[in-house]
């Protein structure tokens, strides 16, 4: 039986949070309790008798809803990946002890890491609480349905959004509209790809595979890891309901390949950023490097990626060391800047550059330097901490969860259910919620994403792609 009272589930989530704070004087133990606490929350919300979601539908048919996919990516990235940085701090690399015979001694950094992990766990519990509070698994959501009986509407939707996105991309200042619309088109292609395989429909397969593969190739030339990983996640999630065992069998080897080869591959591709060689030439050189017997170099690059790029724990500890010891909490300052970011520059030509403003606190804390080419933007939990400390983390992440689930609810309601509303619309337009961003950029993405979602709904309704479910 699934619990009717969401409060029962929410209370359970804070058990590991309390234990980690009881052990505050033993930072190593406190860290591991906090780290394991996130695994406990995953178990509680997905597999335990207290799990609160629509149990009338199999999990594999709702895997892209926030309680599953968003929580997995956000909390997995924020909480679970820190284990590599902490093991490195303890003197281990790939589970091999480096300082043989040397006894580990706790330091100020140990305490900072434990503090950051406790805050991350609190953020995880608060965000998940918000998701559960805004969820109503037993309410009929759909108000509109797809007007076409088959999957041709995906082709039309893909064409419409790609056309609008392409036009917006050519107009200065409209990239924030072009990017989410293009992402919707890519999600349509992924779903079409799956439908083509499932129903042996050559048209769906050809259109979906072509768009998706071209986008994957473009992502592989960018020099960034995230677009490649996102493409793999999207494809795995849309295939999962139909090919569960295959995806589960492929998950570990695919994850290993990505984590083992991708950092070295991308580091080589980034040579094209200087303009001295093309992206295609850099890609060819990257494959050559991977084919060579340079295992030591790959492992060195990967360990640096796992400890300081996949995990942002080191940056978080620097912010905790900086605030409030060397700088007072920011209070409403970051929030005010974030609301100012919503004003279009056409109405405020002198509007400050939000990239410069958001990076200033990064420079002030010594997390990065102005001469550095590394992107070190804060994440929601960091901005919440910088603003109001522990209470800020709890309340900001609670609102984050409430808002995330609310946006998914609206998307499913007006776009006719899970596949179009959640899989394609919500997870494309609001993809920034998967990992979060600094407040200035995230407020902007969510606000204009909400407008784009409703504009797209009225357009599809006008074009009869969507029709009312009742009447």
What features would you describe in this structure?
With 471 residues, the protein is an all-alpha fold. It is built from 19 helices and four strands. It has helices at 6-13, 15-22, 27-46, 69-80, 82-90, 108-133, 152-169, 175-199, 202-220, 226-239, 244-269, 279-291, 295-310, 313-322, 333-340, 354-364, 380-414, 418-429, 439-462; strands spanning 92-93, 96-97, 144-146, 466-468.
Flag low-confidence runs.
none
Could you report the average pLDDT, rounded to the nearest whole number?
87
Helix content: 55-70%
- Summing up helix and strand content along with how strands pair, one would put the structural category as mainly alpha
**Per the principal axes of the C-alpha atoms, what is the gross shape?**
globular
Protein name: Oligosaccharide repeat unit polymerase
Keywords: Membrane, Transmembrane, Transmembrane helix
Transmembrane segments: 7-24, 30-54, 66-87, 153-172, 178-197, 204-221, 227-243, 385-403, 415-434, 446-466
Organism: Pedobacter paludis
What attributes characterize this protein structure?
471 residues, mainly alpha, two-stranded antiparallel ribbon, 19 helices
